Amino acid sequence: MCADPKTRGISGTRQREHASTTPCEPATSPSHTSGPYRVVVPAVAREIEEIRKLLDAIPDVRSDKVRAIRKSLDADRYGLRPDEVADRMIRGAILRRSE
User: Fold this and answer.
1) Do the Cβ atoms of 24 and 39 come closer than 8 Å?
2) Model pLDDT for residues 7-42, shown as the tens digit of each residue
3) Radius of gyration of the chain from its Cα atoms, rounded to whole angstroms
4) Distance of CA 25 to the CA centre of its chain
5) Residue 26: strand pairing partners
6) Which residues are paired to 24 by β-bridges?
7) According to the 3-state scheme, what is the secondary structure of 43-92?
8) Side-chain half-sphere exposure of 7, counting CA atoms within 13 A
9) Can you give the pTM of this predicted structure?
10) How far is the C-alpha of 21 from the C-alpha of 73, rounded, in Å?
11) How many C-beta atoms surround the C-beta of residue 70 within 10 A?
């Protein structure tokens, strides 16, 4: 259990809960601490954060595809068949319903 100064005045049970959710160890470098303890972040957590940053850099909308489709629609060259669209919508609804 981590004897965290933030848990002073809290019952033993609450201190154990706090310690189980906030891993800490004695500080070895004052530049990485805020008080007598530091939080240890596993390498996996750092990797997840790096991946999250990479994913955040990917745009939600593919602007190049949207531009191409708009251009085709404006020129009446986008091969959209209403009967195929309706069939796919109905098939999709049936598949979702059977899940």
Assistant:
1) yes
2) 555 555 554 554 544 455 544 444 455 667 777 778
3) 27
4) 28
5) 37
6) 39
7) HHHHHHHHHHHHHHHCCCCCHHHHHHHHHHHHCCCCCCCHHHHHHHHHHH
8) 17
9) 0.31
10) 55
11) 11
